[in-house]
Amino acid sequence: MSDDSNEGRGDAVADFAGRVFGSAVGALDILSIYLGDRLGWYRALAEAGQLSSTELARRTATQERYAREWLEQQAVSGILTVEETDDPDDADAAPVAASDRRFSLPAAHAEVLTDDTSLDYLAPSVRMFAASAAQLPQLLDAYRTGGGVSWQELGADAHESQGDMNRPWFDKRLAPALASVGSLHEVLSRPGAHIADVGCGHGWSTLALARAYPDARVEGFDVDQPSIEAARRHAAEAGLGEHVRFHLAGGEELAAEGRFDAAFVFEAVHDMPRPVEVLAAIRRAVRDDGQVVIMDEAVAERFAPDGDEVERYMYGFSLVVCLPDSLSSPGSVGTGTVMRQSTLEGYAREAGFSGIEELPIEGFASFRFTRLVR
């Protein structure tokens, strides 16, 4: 092999090593963000404006030495700013004690990490990563045996994360998004319209539908009991407990024929072990002149090795959350997070629909809305 070839190979090795190292640094940042989120450190900083490690520990009932290390790491990572109290030009000045350094959370960073009403709120996604990381031994076993790691096994971090990630989008953007599609809005606005939200999770989409269409009856369905309990609690807190109903049931249990004017599945079809059964039940449950709409990840039309960051992100979720959850049910089709439109269309046709139609709703996070055509 020529020297030039060896040099080129060396550059490629160094480049890839640099990429892996950068990813490792990012992974450590994610873990540090999880600590700051769950220990209440970010919220304490956002509320106080500026805190030392002693003050932060006192406000959050945590240990100062851990708080100090975390604050310094966050400053080095560029997440926090630190007040420069040492004067490098004054040789006689006493150095400031490490526990007295004062740290701040910039307003832009506070919105991303603490504002649960912001469309840029990303702290919940970090909780999902932590939940899946805690299951790595079980994931390794599943990958070897063909089993899975269920949603229940992922625990509270995952459950809360899923609801909190999408809540701002449902609260702020779902109503105008649906109203922008005239034919859909017309059905949802029927007097006494009956709407199903299948795979409702913590119920934020269900509540958003109820607010957008106050004359409608809205029912949420989910197979996860803690999520249904949370959804009922959220409905009561929002004063909507009398206007919505939540059921511990899967979509395949929608047995009443022609009961609903419309049905939605928000970011859940790709998780379903038997999506065709669910879509077939939804088809029977929705009136012939009704609407069935699926919101799921806006991945590319087909696989390509040069996928964008959204594709990489969705494949990552699929590896550690969605695919293992789906495969935890015997007989699952194992869709995974990266559900192409061709896959959804195949499920829809097998369930008795004639095809699918992408709705002209853009800019709704990384999701697309698809209407199933009878």
UniProtKB/TrEMBL annotation:
Residues 195-290 form the Methyltransferase domain. Gene3D superfamilies: Vaccinia Virus protein VP39. Pfam families: Methyltransf_25, WHD_Rv2258c. Keywords: Methyltransferase, Transferase. The keyword Flavoprotein does not apply. InterPro entries: Methyltransf_25 (IPR041698), SAM-binding_MTase (IPR053173), SAM-dependent_MTases_sf (IPR029063), WHD_Rv2258c (IPR048711). GO terms for biological process: methylation. GO terms for molecular function: methyltransferase activity. SUPFAM superfamilies: S-adenosyl-L-methionine-dependent methyltransferases. Residues 31-82 form the S-adenosylmethionine-dependent methyltransferase Rv2258c-like winged HTH domain. This is Class I SAM-dependent methyltransferase. It comes from Agromyces albus.
